[in-house]
Specification:
With 573 residues, this protein is mainly beta. The protein has a 37-stranded mixed beta sheet that branches. Strands 42, 43, 44, 45 and 48 form a five-stranded antiparallel beta sheet that branches. It has a four-stranded antiparallel beta sheet with strand order 47-46-49-51, with no helix packed on it. A hairpin with a 2-residue loop joins strand 44 and strand 45.
């Protein structure tokens, strides 16, 4: 077992270096105090290191414990490793097994943990319990079920330059006990914390939430500095809120705190708190909340900005500034968002919440003064579709979307923000279809009727007709019915009917079926007696639907047949 080999090397080092070469090492037992796979309860001043992320120490299935556990050792330097807690394969919960931690220091002092990538732990990424002067430097901790980093008790700790992402409880916790003091925190990045199983006293809101950096937590803390951190996407940015006792002398300075849903800084049961030189970027919630039991507060030189989201919501184009997630602006700033359409598109309008475009929703650019609240601006671009018939004076129309869709004659136009494929149809009205032509952002070809065009911007669709008059037109009659008037969702049913002229069945003619719940178009050929049958699938959602059935006419040969239409109705339940 790899844990035996590594632990033997640690014991033999007597305070020297232990190098773990590149490879993946899976641990299945917990020989260190029943809680850790490798480490010590006695050896001091060990340098334990690997080949960076190429040296992977991972928990085996149901290990239900920690990877590295150092108790009463002191002077350890752990660096350049990857630790995988493999939380999906652990059977015990984090709450019942607090030592399911990537690296745990217990009553150990003067330790350094640096350049370690720790992920998917059931409890903590890194924990320091009751030691002093420990340094947690430039590590990456991702996806811990509780805290990314927790410094529980002790004094003179430094947590600097770490990236903590996706902790479910707290990104970095300075969790106080009676001797937890002089613990500056600098340059910690805590992002995308989520709310679950949080041990916080947040009585104004009555909820448990994710916290970027927590001061206090399980006990009180004294002389704590939280400075120059980047904290984003949390319920609370920085919280000074001891579970018991009172935090004393807490400085929150020079942080960028953004996208918090409740408060940028929350403080309760704190004496002597300084909140200064912070940048708050507000997308929801408030910047600072101080409970009634906070005293001796100094709040100065903080900057409050609000999120500006600018993006394309429909059609094809771009906006400047481009802030699809968000940018930030101070209240009172002059804002100008410009829209630029892609080729074959044109700007249509803005949708805006939190403010109003000074020139109206169709002005470009959209200008306004940034209010003291978030603003979202969305641009809609449309394509200009031009319809043409050849000859232009034919009086023919083109149906958009289906054979029963909106009809457009020569020279008429349509504005649309859609993409993809769409059907167009010509229901014969004295002329026979020759071909379709498209230009610009439309692509089509051939003489199918209906036909599908590819739509990606403005363009012209032309219906070319065969010129000539009808010499012997015959009216037709088309019928349609469904084999089931109430089919179940997703089941098969048939549409059948007949095409007749002068009371006789017309054979060998193409019947077009257009389904009211789908963009699909189907065709079937009439039998010698003029009948037809088509098997269709009912839609998945309940409701009333039409199946429109068309005979588009036939204008060749001695007998020329005029078009006709019928409809079969179904109710899906």
């Amino acid at each position: 077992m790899p844990e035996t080999v590594i632990n033997d090397a640690i014991a033999a080092s007597s305070g020297g270096k232990v190098y773990i070469e590149a490879g993946t090492y899976t641990f299945t037992t917990l020989p260190i105090g029943g809680v850790g796979a490798i480490g010590t309860s006695s050896v001091s001043n060990v340098e334990l290191y690997g080949a960076g992320s190429s040296t992977v120490l991972q928990a085996g299935t149901n290990l239900n414990g920690g990877i590295i556990y150092v108790q009463s050792g002191g002077g350890w330097y752990i660096h350049d490793l990857q630790i995988n807690g493999n939380r999906a394969s652990q059977s015990a919960s984090g709450a019942s097994t607090p030592y399911q931690t990537g690296i745990a220091l217990y009553e150990s002092s003067n330790d350094v943990i640096e350049h370690v990538y720790i992920h998917d732990e059931k409890t903590y990424g890194i924990s320091s319990d009751a030691g002093s002067s420990n340094q947690i430097l430039d590590n990456q901790v991702a996806n811990s079920d509780a805290n990314g980093i927790i410094m529980y008790g002790g004094s003179n700790h430094l947590v600097q330059g770490n990236v903590v992402n996706g902790a479910s409880d707290v990104g970095i916790s300075i969790s106080g006990t009676n001797d937890n003091g002089n613990a500056p925190i600098t340059n910690a990045l805590c992002t995308q914390n989520t709310a679950s199983n949080v041990n916080l006293d947040v009585s104004p809101f009555g909820q448990n939430s994710g916290v970027g950096i927590m001061v206090g937590d399980n006990g009180y803390a004294t002389t704590i500095t939280v400075s120059d951190n980047q904290i984003s996407v949390a319920s609370f940015g920085v919280s000074s809120d001891p579970y018991s006792g009172t935090n004393v002398d807490v400085t929150i300075s020079g942080n960028t705190i953004q996208s918090t849903t409740v408060d940028g800084v929350y403080a309760e049961a704190t004496t002597g708190i300084t909140i200064e030189n912070n940048l708050f970027i507000i997308s929801a919630g408030a910047d600072i909340y101080l409970a009634s039991d906070v005293s001796g507060s100094v709040i100065e030189n903080n900057v409050i900005e609000y999120t500006l989201t600018a993006k394309v919501v429909a059609g094809s184009g771009s906006v400047s500034p481009n802030c699809p997630s968000w940018c930030s602006e101070e209240a009172g700033s002059s804002i100008s968002v410009a829209a630029t359409p892609s080729t074959n598109w044109q700007f249509s309008s803005w949708s805006i919440t939190g403010a109003s475009c000074s020139g109206g929703s169709s002005s470009n650019p959209c200008t306004f003064t940034m209010p003291d609240n978030p603003v979202t601006v969305g641009a809609t671009f449309v394509a200009l579709i031009t319809f043409a018939t050849n000859p232009s004076d034919s009086g023919a129309v083109i149906n958009w979307g289906s054979c029963e869709g909106a009809a457009y004659g020569n020279g008429q136009t349509l504005l649309s923000s859609s993409y993809g494929s769409i059907a167009v149809c010509y229901v014969p009205s004295g002329y026979t279809l020759s071909s379709w032509n498209c230009s610009g952002g439309l692509v089509c070809s051939g003489s199918n009727n209906p036909t599908l065009i590819t739509f990606d911007g403005s363009g012209t669709i032309t219906l070319n007709l065969k010129i000539g008059s009808l010499s012997n037109p015959v009216s037709t009659s088309l019928t349609a019915s469904s084999s089931q008037s109430n089919p179940s969702p997703g089941t098969s049913f048939t549409v059948s009917g007949s095409l007749t002229a002068n009371g006789n069945g017309v054979s060998g003619k193409t019947i077009v079926l257009v389904f009211g719940w789908s963009t699909n178009i189907a065709t079937v050929t009439t039998q010698p007696d003029g009948t037809y049958t088509y098997t269709a699938t009912a839609p998945s959602s309940a409701g009333s639907y039409n199946v429109d059935v068309f005979f588009l006419g036939n204008f060749t040969g001695t007998t020329q047949y005029l078009p006709s239409k019928a409809t079969a109705k179904i109710t899906v339940s």
